[in-house]
Design brief:
five-stranded mixed beta barrel; two-stranded antiparallel sheet
């Protein structure tokens, strides 16, 4: 990715985080279950591989860690060289950065990539965000 593309990704992530601060929290949902209601989220299995839940990924994110996720494309934003889109599963949401073509809204897909972290400082407070750098995108049919 060129310097301009990286800068545009940084700018878009900053804008998304700042605009969505009131709409969501980075690591927790306001309707999160209490400790007594919490159930273990196990990775789902499909297409012969294991998909990690977004909640599991957010509990122990490791930059440059390869992962596979399955979810529904909810929002997307065009960049100079690619797209950033939000992938949602039953446990949460995460932003995905791609240099590929426009992902279809409300499409269920399997996405593989590496975990990245974008530091966003407001004063001395880091409100940065983990996201996925897409390596592969495969639309899923309802049978999968």
């Amino acid at each position: 990715m060129t310097v301009n593309a990286k800068y545009s990704v940084f700018c878009v992530l900053n804008l998304l985080v700042l605009n969505l601060l009131g709409a969501c929290t980075p690591l927790a949902d306001t309707d999160a279950p209490t400790a007594q209601e919490t159930t273990l989220a196990l990775p789902s299995i499909s297409r012969g591989g294991k998909a990690t839940s977004i909640e599991t990924l957010r509990q122990d994110p490791k930059p440059d860690q390869p992962v596979e996720l399955e979810g529904i494309v909810r929002q997307r934003v065009p960049l100079l060289e690619g797209w950033i889109y939000e992938l949602e599963d039953e446990t949460g949401r995460i932003w995905v950065l791609t240099e590929a073509s426009e992902p279809a809204l409300d499409e269920t897909a399997r996405v593989s990539g590496t975990v990245q972290y974008e530091q966003i400082l407001i004063g001395d407070v880091d409100i940065g965000e983990y996201y996925l750098q897409e390596k592969d995108y495969s639309p899923l049919t309802e049978a999968e």
